[in-house]
Amino acid sequence: MKCFHYFKDKSRSRQQRSAPELKEQSKSDYSGSGTHRIAKSSCSETSARRIPELYEEKARNLRDFSFSELRHATHDFDRLLRIGEGGFGSVYKGSIKPADGKGDPIVVAIKKLNKDGLQGHKQWVAEVQFLGVVEHPNLVKLVGYCAADGERGIQRLLVYEFMPNKSLEDHLFNRAYPALPWKTRLQIILGAAQGLAYLHEGLEIQVIYRDFKTSNVLLDENFKPKLSDFGLAREGPVAGRTHVSTAVMGTNGYAAPDYIETGHLTTKSDVWSFGVVLYEIITGRRSLERNRPRAEQKLLEWVKQFPPDSKKFGLTIDPRLENQYSIAAARKIARLADSCLMKSAKDRPKMTQVVESLKQIIQDSDEEATISKESFEPSETDSADSSKEPNQLEATESWKRRMTHLAKLGEHVEGASRRRFMIMQRAKVA
Ligand SMILES: Nc1ncnc2c1ncn2[C@@H]1O[C@H](COP(=O)(O)OP(=O)(O)OP(=O)(O)O)[C@@H](O)[C@H]1O
Ligand SMILES: [Mg+2]
């Protein structure tokens, strides 16, 4: 039997992305469990039952749509209703009748897979089976599916709950959207981490997601993140195995180097991808950007020049944040990213540990924000300098000194410099 290698190149723009590249590969990726080459230590998360069995048990409420139903729902796949285009196919907004036929129509997203033969079908099956089994607030819900082999050829479709705020990719990198605030970035990344932690450690089986990236983090009406795209998901290793051996699949710029080199897939491959996205959130830059100067094209290489504990670190932060972020929290996020990006997979944290770290960072920066807000709010005691904290007093004194100095300068300077100074003063007064 033939197998295929599938690797998506995310460095090209969405418009440029072509259909999946198919190449021959080893046999392991087609068998359910794969050919395991290493059996060193035992894996605690053993899978007594496999996905197909769990699917039989749990996925009864998925709807089986006919092709004409979905054609109708999307006005015959009208281009105007097309809301996205990925490596697997096009996504349309549509509306379907509720399962019991009563009440208002339900708005859904319908993904129509490209006709990629066996590989496309395999990814469709994986997506239906995994999304039929998992259930978590940070994973997208699959409403149903459609498999039709008719005069139009082989059709494979997936019907999801509709996510009105597009993806994290859109909000981080597309200038048509306003800059995503720092706090929202942290909340989104925490939710995404919780989704991954559930897949790795919260189920009877262990699920390796294999395609963690910003475009697969969809956002609901409240900007709550939900992971989508389970076409590349795999079950973790069976008892006694450390990893799954697979054909290398994923997206360039996000896949762990150890996985690319060996084909050994573990949950720590997802942790690496998560580390990449953490740096994307800090910098507002994509993991690969071919239109930047050579030294800046690979995000992970570029950020190495600005370590989290260095003075230069601030230079990495997304300029679109316009100083509305906590530098202390950003440093902590970068340190966390570095731990996810450890060369050796076993040195990377588990996703549950990542979740805990993120919660702590968010809590610390909330407290920091409250303290600094309080310190700027005028109170009755503010008039008495003796009541102020030493560093607050210092800041006030230094501000006064700077203003006096600038005022003096302003008496003598003309033209542009003077105007600049006036603008500064006005800005401070407002
Ligand atoms: N459930 C959904 N609700 C709303 N929009 C969606 C939904 N699923 C996908 N989309 C939109 O369709 C776009 C394309 O998704 P798709 O998963 O096909 O491709 P991708 O993630 O951009 O790339 P790739 O194929 O490499 O994973 C998403 O970025 C998103 O804007
Ligand atoms: Mg996707």
TrEMBL record:
Bias type Basic and acidic residues, positions: 1-12
Organism of this sequence: Hevea brasiliensis (Para rubber tree)
Protein name per Swiss-Prot or TrEMBL: Protein kinase domain-containing protein
Cross-referenced Gene3D superfamilies: Phosphorylase Kinase, domain 1 (3.30.200.20), Transferase(Phosphotransferase) domain 1 (1.10.510.10)
InterPro entries tied to this protein: Kinase-like_dom_sf, Plant_Ser_Thr_Prot_Kinase, Prot_kinase_dom, Protein_kinase_ATP_BS, Ser-Thr/Tyr_kinase_cat_dom, Ser/Thr_kinase_AS
Domain called Protein kinase: residue spans: 77-362
Main location: membrane
Region of interest (Disordered), ranges: 1-45, 367-399
